[in-house]
Amino acid sequence: MRNRRARLLVIGLLLAVLMVIVYKMIYPEPRNIAMQSADFTLSAKELAQEMSHAEMAKKYGDKVVHTFGRISAIDGNVITLEDGVVVHLLDNSGLELEKGDSIAIKGRCIGYDDLLEEVKLDQASIIQDK
Amino acid sequence: MGMLCLGFSYAQEKYIDRKGVVVFEASEKLFEPVKAKNESVSVLFDASNNKIASLALMRGFRFKNPLMQEHFNENYIESHQYPKALFKGEIMDFDIAHANSTTKQYAIKGTLEIRDIAKAIESTVQIQKIENIIAIHGSFIVLPEDFKIEIPKIVKNKIAQRVLVKLDFKLIGDYEE
Fold first, then answer.
1. Do the Cβ atoms of B66 and A78 come within 8 Å?
2. Do B40 and A120 lie within an 8 Å CB cutoff?
3. Residue A130's pLDDT is what?
4. Which among B46, B78, B86, B93 would be 20 to 30 A from A21, CA to CA?
């Protein structure tokens, strides 16, 4: 009787673990860009220059990019670096940023916007103490 | 910059949004919602000729389920090859001089280009103007087959055949330049 109960308990536990694994496979955690290491590191000017060539979308698309430069515009959580890289910050509360400041950020490159001629990064965070 | 080639004549008549919101939904009842949101859509409007252009990067569409997002990019849109959706059109009978905080409805006509395939779009949008901000709301329907997007049989009943696209833009008048 006792043996059987123990066995049921083990099977139940195994099933629970299996269900968690399957669930994680079907619903993986969203990427946390801030925790990932950068695939590329280059200045905002270089990034804008590189991305203006259409074939570069493949190289940088969906990749984590570490870039830096002078702030040319600020609009809420959207910061433009060197007039050519638009960065959508996840959170900029508690930061005092001003036009002209030099900053470094890490974000996901989502591509080149040829309407406004800008590179776009989202899910970005500021890298302190560059 | 790029605005020049679109024929923008007067700086003060040009309105820009860099964080336009586009949501698309192709959910079927009883199944996991098929829904994605892009909050970094670019929109450019020229009040002198009512021409509007909007660009959404496909990688900017975010799904709740990362696997769904991967399938959207890799299998359906093929974002590495076709990274953007571009709408170019005109807001019919809009007059910036008479636009105000009262929301009015306008017809919009243009073409939507996805995966190098252009499709004519006609819809209505709601527009209001407060100070130097023009707010545009609207929605339209697209069909995956219009852009040669094949939905595999195995998931066909989980994805709606008509995709609802909703847009929410706040364009700011560029008075500085």
1. no
2. yes
3. 47
4. B78
* Interchain contact B68–A (C-beta under 8 A): no
Quote the pLDDT of residue B175. Answer: 58
Does position A2 have pLDDT exceeding 80, yes or no? no
Cβ-nearest to B53 among A57, A61, A115? A115
* Cβ density class A75-113: b for 16+ within 10 Å, e for less: eeebbbbbbbbbbbbeebeeeeeeeeeebbbbbbbbbbb
Q: What value does the mean pLDDT take over residues B72-95? A: 93
Confidence of residue B2 (pLDDT cuts 50, 70, 90): very low
Is A86 in Cβ contact with B18 (below 8 Å)? yes
